[in-house]
Amino acid sequence: MEGLIWGGIVKTNDSASEIDTPRVGGIHFRVGTQAGHVIRVDDELIIDASSKGIFKIKKNWQNLHDVDLIKELKVLYNLPESQITLIMLEELRQKYANDWKNWPVNLGAPYVDVNENGIYDPVLDANGYPIPNLGDYPGMDQAEQTLFMVVNDLDSVKVKSLSGAEPLGLEVQITLWSYDTDFLPLAHTIFKRYVFVNKSNHAIDSMFVGQFVDADVGDYSDDLIGCDTLLNLAFAYNGNDVDFEAIKKDLPPPALGYCLLQGPMVETGNTSDVGYKNFNPLNGFKNLPMTSFVYWASGGSLADPPLGVIDYTLQMYNMLNGYIPTNDLKYPTPYVAGSGPNAGQPTKFPLSGDPINDPQGLFGDVDGQGWNMGPSDRRFMMNTGPFTLRPDESQEIILAIIGGLERDRLGAVKQVKNIINYLRAAYQNQLKDVFPKPDVPQVKATPFDEYVVLNWGWDAESVQRIEQQVKNGFRFEGYNVYQLPRADAGLNDPQTVKIATFDLINDVAKISGLKAHPVNGRYYETLLQEGSNSGIKHYLVIKEDQINKIKFYRGSTYYFAVTSYSYNPELPEYPSLESDYQAVSVIIQDEPPGDRYFSEAEQEIEVVASKESDVLCLVNVVDPAAVTGHDYQVYFTQDTDTASATYGTYLWNLKDLTTGLTVLTGQSIKELDEDTPPDKMDEDQLIVDGLLVKVLTKPKGLAAIVQVAGAEGTLTSEQNVWHSLSWINDPNRFYISAGGGNGTIDRLLSGINHANGHDFELRFTNSGGWYLWWDEDSNKVAARVPFEAWDVGPATYDDPSDDIRCLTGGYSGGATPGVFDFAYQDPFFGFAATDWIDIRKPLNEQGSYQAFAQDIESGAFTYQWWNNSVEVLSNIIICDFGGARTLPPSGTVIRFITTKGADQELTFTFTAPDKIEDDLDLMKKDVEKINVFPNPYYAASRLEPDRFTHFVTFNHLPPHAVIRIFTLNGVLVRKLEKNEDSQFLRWDLKNEKGRSVASGMYVIHVDMPELGKQKILKLLVIASEQMH
């Protein structure tokens, strides 16, 4: 048993003295309240009769199954299933409907404020019922069930029978709610909210509220209790390893916890403090925590206060203040710790030790240890206060009631505490994401004659919401695709098949945790999600019946579902949640009458680039029924938002050139991966007009390092010199490598981002230029070298107008600064190598080669050019293969060709495949395809779900058709009319009177008035015994 108890001191106009007697009320072993909302009429408080009773709603009230209602009625009335009547079922079903329609928001009942305007303004259906998400609707957000009631303490007889005191004049609005899930923190939790309203004309001072609990965890006689001040938790658990009530159900001993998520709000005056009330934050306030914990035991030295006399009020008010139950308010007696180093010391939080890590109570006050009583029938109360409640003011507290069930009694306590850690984190967002289930993917399913296309990437807003939102630490991780045996089958149905999982490429793959057993509800460790770092996709082409492992059967209906799932590594016991789903059904068929498709799923479309680059654009058909035949263009824009993660980079956009509309914007360009073929990359793009468009680029780097000229002039073909020998006619052949590390190409690329797609050359000349050893400790040493470095623009080799001379310098490598020689050794092949060459590109005149040279020649070495230039290439070494230790001769040119990314001049264009829809001439032509199957019909069909359902199906029908079925002698058996887009229509093999037809041959006349066409079919029916 449990209930809420309150107490306070009434303040009239005359200030009360310290000997004022408090008033106490609430719900204990007697009920000191009555039902109803309090109204003031002519200064008199009366009860609104219409507000009496319990209002309760379910989220799925329109689809309640009898089995769920029976389960509830069995508990509600403590009846066996055999005594649950149809009338009782219907009354309960109607109760849920009525309360959904007439939810008492005016009495304080909570609602989901969809538009967040603070006003209950639901959108109603034709029968006056609120439609969720279109407008506000009853209950707590995402909760499966919400209960609401209003009580008050105006009945002095009831209050005196409890406490011997007069009423305080309170109205209490009580809300309870829970969630339908196997997510353990919520599956084991009931939430409770109390709102207190002072309906009297006097203030209530020094008010406290206490949650009283007579726990009775399993067998009532062997319980222990405790509190945790850090978690605002009071809990009860079994004192023995076996509980005689739990063992009857083959269960280990459970545990029970009450957590104060939100206490009364009091003003602090400190604007940095934040208090919460009605799920809204208020600065300058704070919520009181659990301010004391008290306990007593049936038959113990601390017993229940005597009911119905003023002694109850005195003792209970002392307990609300954290003292033992005595009548002395002036000199109350404190509780004392019973074990641990503070044993015998007064405390307002007895039994606050840790039974999990300190079961002997050596370091804290643990129940059942030291001077504390042994296991018995315990009661406890967790309290919060004091606060003042003035006339017409309200206060609010929110509690979570948690059940724990683990392998043993202390494991159950640990589970309760783990759940509370999660709930308290969720409360920081005012419980908005307490149930962080991912959103449901929006799936379109398109059937064809041999395959089905599932597309959940068509809704950009839905995809972004699913993949970007973080709910209480849970982040998107992947999608699952299922085939269901029936429309109403669940994911746990033994015939349901998981077809595919698409998950992020990260360090998360398989996710294990606790899951509820579908039969007994017990939680067990299992594999929750089976990712493989496959990468995300937003579509799937399914080419066979995954349940039966056969090809799709034309005319058959198949059911599919797509879910999203999330991951939170901070919750190892329950780290993943999977979304709900919407089952989508498809009938395998070829093109509908009047339609023609001119492409296939996953067909590649030719793309034309405006210029050469290292950017690749791939376009594939996803849904041949959704393509447009339009012309499209991919173009690029630079991100100029300094707060953006992609600031400064180029993003791609997709424009429909036929309509002039831009259909995708701000898409990131993905880098190519050497280990993954391009057609397998970037599958996570959105699907637009039935197309998957992907834009990929090589990573910023060097596409090649080539020799383009030698002493004799320009080479007829470029010669690769990266770790490869130079032109065969060079007098002393060389190759290019990298100084430091292992001599790999990444050593050259530390400044490659500054290259901006430009290429660079080392030109060996007679005049040469300055080289400065700027990476040496003595960075004022320079020498002339027989080469120059140039920025030659973005592959504009024949246009010298954009060439810019660069700065050269670096590191000796061979400990000979001041002498550019071959004293270093290539770390890759081991040949003698030059000093390391860095190339810096000027940003302005102050960073130009002229400024650089002047700084050296003047001997000043001010390095003012340094911040006016940027490094583009580094650690280049020229390696001596020929052995002469000479640099390449004058006229030699080594070109560093960078990868060419996107820019504003680059575009890709393509034309989507076309299709024909609703063509009247084609519809007339398709009349020849109209048929009925199975034909002959032999007693049953594999398309029928059970032996009681019988039908044949007409296909290739236009939107409107009238079908008349005759016997051979011309008697009309049945008339059917079709008025919808599907090409299919079923006949249930019954006549106009609803009776099954006899065996025989039937003539079928199909009339299509809009087409001016008719067709005659014949059907042979062999009836079965079940049909009659």
From TrEMBL:
It comes from the Bacteria. Gene3D superfamilies: 2.60.40.4070. This is Por secretion system C-terminal sorting domain-containing protein.
